[in-house]
Amino acid sequence: MSAPTILNISGVNKRFGGLQALSEVNVKILKGQIYGLIGPNGAGKTTFFNVITGLYQADTGSFELAGKPYSPSAPHEVAKAGIARTFQNIRLFGEMTVLENVMVGCHVRTHQGVFGAVFRHKAARTEELAIRKRSQELLDFVGIGRFGERTARHLSYGDQRRLEIARALATEPQLLALDEPAAGMNATEKLALRELLVKIKNEGKTILLIEHDVKLMMGLCDRLTVLDYGKPIAEGLPAEIQKNPAVIEAYLGGGH
Ligand SMILES: Nc1ncnc2c1ncn2[C@@H]1O[C@H](COP(=O)(O)OP(=O)(O)OP(=O)(O)O)[C@@H](O)[C@H]1O
């Protein structure tokens, strides 16, 4: 029996004025996969992320998350529905501690929410302790457990990326959507990131990944979709994608 479908999206179109940023995009991601989205600059990758996480509204498209119809809406609702994302430009609470950043992520799934935590009702205190413990476990999992009390903005670049991933995992997502997590990383940091993503996959999580480093993607992804000028030009296994003439043309041809 094949794995259940986590994300099933079809017929997505998105236009900005005269520009067709997404054109009939279909993506189907199975549980436990690392699914890659690649394409030259401006191909529509981030727009696709923005559409599935409710930052942009698609002109058309049908969306299913873990077998249920899903309508991308406000970011908090999207997190509750089960999609957690990171951004090309790191978005942390820079003045909060590393641990607190992850705790914020955990509150998506709590009963008391952030207000309960602030006013310190008794039930909230108990929940808060559990959240602290869970957050520390997540920091340990991504490899920055020793920095919990540091101010987030004092972490190294690579560790800030890990923290973003820990915070996203804290929302207990069905799908972890990572937008260029290796951007700006050196070779050692990239290698460590790769190991972390494999570790997350081995926990049974499902990952949707945008990344410019094609070599990294080919080694990491179970399947990929290639976008070019908003259109899907190929879908398949890394070995199929690598020898697809349309993909080679999109990357090496004169259009970009
Ligand atoms: N809010 C917007 N308004 C108008 N045009 C936009 C908007 N967002 C994106 N675009 C345009 O849509 C196209 C796709 O952009 P997008 O950022 O999704 O590409 P990308 O594949 O993520 O590129 P990169 O790899 O450079 O991040 C581009 O031509 C971009 O200029």
Give your account of this protein's structure.
With 256 residues, the protein is α/β, with parallel strands linked by helices. It has two domains: 1-82 and 174-255, P-loop containing nucleotide triphosphate hydrolases (Rossmann fold, 3-Layer(aba) Sandwich); 93-172, no CATH class. It is 40% helix and 25% strand. The protein has ten helices and ten strands. The strands form two sheets. The protein has a six-stranded mixed beta sheet, sandwiched between helices. The chain has a four-stranded antiparallel beta sheet with strand order 2-1-4-5, covered by helices on one side. Helix 3 packs across helix 5 (122-142), helix 3 runs parallel beside helix 6 (157-170) and helix 5 (122-142) packs across helix 6 (157-170). The radius of gyration is 19 Å and the shape is globular. The mean pLDDT is 90. The structure holds adenosine-5'-triphosphate (ATP). It holds the Pfam family BCA_ABC_TP_C. Residues 7-254 form the ABC transporter domain. Keywords: ATP-binding, Cell membrane, Membrane, Nucleotide-binding, Transport.
How large is the count of helical segments? 10
Bulk shape: globular
Bound molecules: adenosine-5'-triphosphate
User: Which residues sit in consecutive blocks of at least 5 with pLDDT less than 50?
Assistant: none
Helix content: 25-40%
CATH topology of the largest domain: Rossmann fold
> Span from first to last CA?
42 Å
**What is the mean predicted local confidence, pLDDT?**
90
User: What is the CATH class of the largest domain?
Assistant: Alpha Beta
CATH architecture descriptor name of the largest domain: 3-Layer(aba) Sandwich
Global structural class: alpha/beta
Based on CA atoms alone, the radius of gyration comes out at: 19 Å
**Oligomeric grouping of the chains:** single chain
Widest β-sheet, arrangement of strands: 6-7-8-3-9-10
